[in-house]
Amino acid sequence: MFAEIIIDQDAKALDKVFEYIVPDDMELQVGMRVKVPFGKRQLQGFVVKIKDNCDYNSEKLKKICEKIEDFAVVKPEMLEIMKFMAKKFHLKLASILRLFLPAEMREGKVSELIETYYHLCENVDYSISKSAKNQLAIIEELKNGDKSSSYLGEKYGYSTLKTLVLKGYIEKKKREVKRKPFVITQNDKRVTLNDGQINALNCIKENKTYLLHGVTGSGKTEIYMHLIEDALQKGKNAIMLVPEISLTPQIMSNFKGRFGDNVALLHSGLSAGERFDEWKRLFTGEARIAIGARSAIFAPLENLGVIIIDEEHEGSYISESNPRYNTHSVAEFRARYNSCPLLLGSATPSIESYQKAKEGIYQLIELPVRANGKEMPPVQIVDMMEELRRGNSSIFSNQLLADLANVINDKKQAMIFMNRRGYSSFMRCRECGYVAKCSDCDVSLVYHKEDNRLKCHYCGKQFKVLTRCPNCQSENIKYGAVGTEQIVHKLNEIFPDVKILRMDNDTTSTKNAHQKILDEFRRTKPCILVGTQMIAKGHDFEDVVLVGIVDGDQGLYQTDYRSTERTFQLITQVAGRAGRSENAGKVVLQTYSPRHYVYKFASNYDYKGFFRKEINIRQTAEFPPFTRLLRILFSDFDENHVRELLKVCYTEIVKLKDKYGDQIIYLDAMKSPIKRVQDKYRYQIMMRLKLEKADEIEEECFNIVNSAAKTSVFFEVNPQNLS
Ligand code: ADP
Ligand code: ZN
Ligand code: ZN
User: Fold this and answer.
1) Which ligand is nearest to the CA of 473?
2) Under 8 Å CB-to-CB from 460, ≥6 apart: which residues?
3) More confident residue, 452 or 23
4) Distance 290 CA to ligand 1 centre (A)
5) N or C: which end of the chain has fewer CB within 10 A?
6) Is 193 in the pocket of ligand 1 (CB under 6 A)?
7) Cα(189)–Cα(182) distance, rounded to whole angstroms?
8) Residue of 468, 458, 383 whose CA lies nearest to 427
């Protein structure tokens, strides 16, 4: 017998299937991990096929050394996903297989947690003198069941335990215990479904992709839970993806409350051991629901009854580090493979997804009202240019300060939101609001400090830094923005007696930090929580009556075609935090561009209106979803080498223009906006392609690059981030 094996090394030269001889006495299955001789070394690999004949000269083949585990770690469906992803995203096979296993397992660092415990021997006459109190106590404890060695040892002394073992009264045993990643209060609040929810559930039956467009608070979570419950009842399993930042304690306790130990949670807050245990519970079928961020789409579950992607518009579903993939595509593949529905849920679907729903590729389901019947809170737009003209050049408008003072008076709570993205990058006139844009691409330019230039992240074009506004001639032109820290500092000055909490990347780096801040916020009244994107999602605080958005424009003048869309999404999400209960809420939105269409639509909660406007702009400007944006990223420690490689590839790719003509809307090669990452130099080829021939052109580019490159080259389609 022979086996086809993929070597577990992230090297281009090893990115193919190797053949080995299966030793006669080895019972091998597809999906098992093995050790094989490779040159002078022994390497790990995955068995992807077993066959009677080999394609190669069998005399030259070597034998598999040994199996790493006695079972197949990669299930048949996962091998199909591997093939699909390799083709679709141009990835190396080993790098895909790695996604399927917890990293800990590959590196062999973590294994099952083994506990030593003591068990009372049966049918034994215990003759212990009354003075041996500890011995008697141990026997008493064990009569009620087994106890761990550490518990008994600490309490009664390890030598006492030894004595009892020698006497033959108790025995020492070992067992595997699961680490408990979450100590959470379980919440199983049941509600009667409303008509909208019932209708949605009745729709979602078939092996199709559904887009659930439901306003914040419309009760989407309840629909997710019912779908999962249905799947379990049919003996099937389920995957639910949520963005990392919305894996709040609240979501977890709701799902744990409803489904108990059937739920396995996978996210970056877990320790290596915890991750491994949760993965194993899914693998063995002990847990049947995987909930987690992006990578949970690779949960080792078979027989899926439903896949759910919550907040489907979130950028984090596109992987921007290696391997680079798009979660929606993988989810769609798994849903088709399992013949189950895929549900995408959002209050603000991505323009791409909503367009697909319009085209009938996705089935659209709408929940236009909140489950509790409450209106969405009114949004007041404050013109910060006007504030400036009136002499207020601080971060806060008079309106926001007045509203904050009211909140504090009423002993309620407020959230102040600050967009994390785009710290200081774009350039804006403080008099008229003008923002410097690329003359070719109509996206905002980014200020690069190191060479004091403005650059376009799409085409690489560079511009001189402005000293005078071309629009109004003012010299009051500035970069950038303020951060959360500065806001907290200012608020402390203005409201010295009020508790002000901060939640952002800096304050949440330690485990459970999130939860601690939120718990404190929940307890404290009055209180102001200042934060980034992290406070925008999923939190349900009854006493939040005011949401302040300090600088709505921050996201707007980002450098990519999705920036307006992201601004709309963020404002809607953040606004959804206010007035979720009996307390009426309000949103104050500060902006320097009050007449921008995004604010008009966002303040009216008019998603459809926004979509119509935005999709028109995309069509006219030839941006996705009407075209495909392709970035081919080259990176290497040796700058000359990357540059050389870029040149070789570009020369070939340019020739495609003869063949494809206007199918290639844009093509150029350049340094990446961030020139060096982890000591590697980055260069890129950017392309915009008409959809008609996009697959074909992409394939041709891949073949060109693949035959020229010795090192890694990455293909990104419609990336979220062009740094
Ligand atoms: P979404 O995820 O759509 O933003 P949620 O699922 O968080 O909304 O629901 C918002 C609130 O409405 C929650 O407190 C939830 O318990 C409640 N809710 C959901 N469905 C119903 C219902 N049918 N009747 C009453 N309350 C409901
Ligand atoms: Zn440009
Ligand atoms: Zn100006």
Assistant:
1) 3
2) 668, 670, 671, 686
3) 23
4) 22
5) C
6) yes
7) 19
8) 468
User: How is domain 2-106 classified at the architecture level of CATH?
Assistant: 3-Layer(aba) Sandwich (3.40)
pTM: 0.83
- Point out the ligand nearest to the CA of residue 436: 3
Q: Which atom of ligand 1 is nearest to the CA of 223?
A: 6
Considering 87-96, 242-251, 413-422, 544-553, the range whose residues carry the highest mean pLDDT is 87-96
Domain locations along the chain: 2-106, 113-177, 200-367, 379-421+486-618, 425-480, 627-717
Domain 113-177: CATH architecture, name and number where available: Orthogonal Bundle (1.10)
At residue 664, what is the residue type?
Answer: I
CATH class of the structural domain 379-421+486-618: alpha beta
* Ligand 1 site-directed mutation target among 194, 221, 376, most atoms within 8 Å of CB: 221
Distance 385 CA to ligand 3 centre (A): 11
State which ligand 1 atom lies nearest to the alpha carbon of 310.
2
Domain at 627-717, CATH from 3.40.50.2300, 1.20.1070.10, 3.20.180.20, 3.30.70.100: 3.30.70.100
Domains 200-367 and 379-421+486-618 share a fold: yes
For every residue of 149-208, DSSP letters joined together read HHHHHHHH-HHHHHHHHHHTSEEEEEEEE-----------------HHHHHHHHHTTSSS
CA of 458 to the centre of ligand 2 (A): 5
Atom 11 of ligand 1, residue of closest alpha carbon: 217
Amino acid (1-letter code) at residue 269: G
DSSP result, 431-443? TT--B-B-TTT-S
Task: Say which ligand is closest to the CA of 311.
Answer: 1
Q: What six digits make up the tokens of 207?
A: 């092996």
Q: Domain 200-367, what architecture? A: 3-Layer(aba) Sandwich (3.40)
Q: For 437-444, what is the mean pLDDT?
A: 74
Alpha carbon of 537 to ligand 1 centroid (Å): 14
pLDDT in tens, 68-120: 988 999 999 999 999 999 999 999 999 999 999 987 776 655 566 677 889 98
The tens digit of pLDDT for each residue in 526-578 reads 999 998 877 876 567 888 999 999 887 766 665 678 889 988 998 998 888 88
